[in-house]
Design brief:
It catalyses: (S)-4-amino-5-oxopentanoate = 5-aminolevulinate. This is Glutamate-1-semialdehyde 2,1-aminomutase. It is found in: Cytoplasm. The chain is an alpha/beta fold. The protein has two domains: 167 residues, Aspartate Aminotransferase, domain 1, CATH 3.90.1150; 246 residues, Type I PLP-dependent aspartate aminotransferase-like (Major domain) (Aspartate Aminotransferase, domain 2, 3-Layer(aba) Sandwich). The strands form four sheets. It has an eight-stranded mixed β-sheet with strand order 4-13-12-11-10-5-9-7, sandwiched between helices. It is globular. Bound molecules: 4'-deoxy-4'-aminopyridoxal-5'-phosphate.
């Protein structure tokens, strides 16, 4: 008998390219039929066939409080009663800007947008406008949304002038995007030595969550800060994923490094479309209507979305919120690592706050190349066995996972028990 999930996927593929509205949802990496979800509550999800799951994706980060949190829902409902959109300033936006600036003090001024992609795209344009330079530096395996300049990768390890990693990106534009390996301090120093005066900005995920989880090492972030300061380039921390998640003040608070610009998304909207970019006042003053760098949005600062974000940000400020989230995540990851070790399976794992990485490799990787050497087939097998057992992990060996404050000790125990069972029969 075909399941409703399968029926929906077949029908969707006729009308929606690949059956999905964002590629990773199609399960291309792990194979099989994507799960169509109908309902979520706290740490739990239910699909169209009525099967229940413990959720470790959390809509790719925003659901830090779990699904359908009553206070977030009430805030959305209240805002919706007063109109869904004005396209004009509101007191809510001011409240959001004040809160962001308080929690992330490097963001002296803030502009709201509707996605992480818009935030990073705008921050790059602003950095180019502010410096009058064209080149940007990003790191292999970091994802900063799908703006043309950012869809570029390099040949492994070595610096090349950018080759677009998507069709439709003009090579002339991609040529302005330089790509180096993450955590490669010497390569960054060498590049700035050669062409520091041409580089508008570095954009970096301060903890990478888009090639599985990769942690900065050997003072990498400090080196980026120093090189940008020395050569007059703008340092952009893309905290779309890490913001309000690895610590209340984001990765910049965790590592004690002050970027010039920061981009935010995901948690800041609590599950509705909100993004933000902000930073040094002198740089932000280059934005229209004050300055020559154009940026705009019909739904920017949308009152309903901002209300969901404000309710979320209010709740995550409770004492010990992030310490508890870190502890829950750590317990889950260590449980899986022990489970694999007991069964003699090559496996490693780590977490930074509520973000985690699981790898079918002997130790935690520190670069794109190292991640690529992990056993993808083993991950795919594990993914499907966990899915069958009602544990919903990210459907790719190259994505980080997320734990919410709604995950209970029972959820963690059930997750580890499922892994015990799978690894015992590995
Ligand atoms: N930057 C980072 C670090 C991200 O993880 C993402 C999305 N996963 C983006 C930017 C793009 O955000 P969005 O999907 O909201 O456009």
């Amino acid at each position: 008998m075909t399941s409703r999930n399968q029926q929906l996927f077949e029908q969707s593929q006729r009308l929606i390219p690949g059956g999905v509205n964002s590629p990773v949802r199609a399960f291309r990496s792990v194979g099989g039929t994507p799960v169509f979800f109908k309902r979520g509550k706290g740490s739990r999800l239910w699909d169209e066939d009525g099967k229940e799951y413990i959720d470790y994706v959390g809509s790719w980060g925003p659901m830090i409080l779990g699904h359908a949190h009553p206070e977030v829902f009430a805030a959305v409902q209240k805002a919706a009663e007063n109109s869904l959109s004005f396209g004009a300033p509101t007191a809510l936006e001011l409240e959001m800007a004040e809160l962001i600036s308080t929690l992330v003090p490097s963001m002296e001024q803030v502009r709201l947008v509707s996605s992480g992609t818009e935030a990073t795209m705008s921050a790059i344009r602003l950095a180019r406008g502010y410096t009058g330079r064209s080149k940007i530096l990003k790191f292999e395996g970091c994802y900063h949304g799908h703006a043309d300049s950012l869809l570029v990768k390099a040949g492994s390890g070595a610096l090349t002038f950018g080759q677009p990693s998507s069709a439709g990106v003009p090579p002339e534009l991609a040529a302005h995007t330089l790509t180096l390996a993450y955590n490669d301090n010497a390569a960054v120093e060498q590049l700035f030595e050669q062409m520091g005066s041409e580089i508008a900005c570095i954009i970096v995920e301060p903890v990478v969550g888009n090639m599985n989880l990769i942690v900065p090492q050997n003072d990498f972030l400090n080196l980026l800060r120093a090189q940008c300061t020395k050569h007059g380039a703008v340092l952009i921390f893309d905290e779309v994923m890490t913001g309000f998640r690895v610590a209340l003040g984001g990765a910049q608070a965790l590592y004690g490094i002050t970027p010039d610009l920061t981009t935010l998304g995901k948690v800041i909207g609590g599950g509705l479309p909100v993004g933000a970019f902000g930073g040094r006042r002198d740089i932000m003053n280059c934005l229209a209507p004050l300055g020559p760098v154009y940026q705009a949005g019909t739904l920017s600062g949308n009152p309903v979305a901002v209300s969901a974000g404000l309710a979320t940000l209010k709740l995550i400020q409770t004492p010990d919120f992030h310490a508890r989230l870190n502890q829950t995540t750590h317990q889950m990851v260590q449980g899986l690592v022990n489970s694999a070790r007991n069964a003699g399976v090559t496996f490693s794992g780590q977490n930074v706050g509520g973000m985690f990485g699981l790898y079918f490799s002997a130790s935690c990787p520190d670069s794109f190349d190292a991640v690529m050497q992990s056993d993808k087939e083993a991950f795919n097998r594990f993914f499907h066995a966990m899915l069958e057992a009602g544990i919903y992990l990210a459907p790719s060996a190259f994505e980080a996972g997320f734990v919410s404050a709604a995950h209970t000790a029972e959820d963690i125990a059930a997750t580890i028990a499922a892994a015990d069972n799978i690894f015992a029969h590995w």
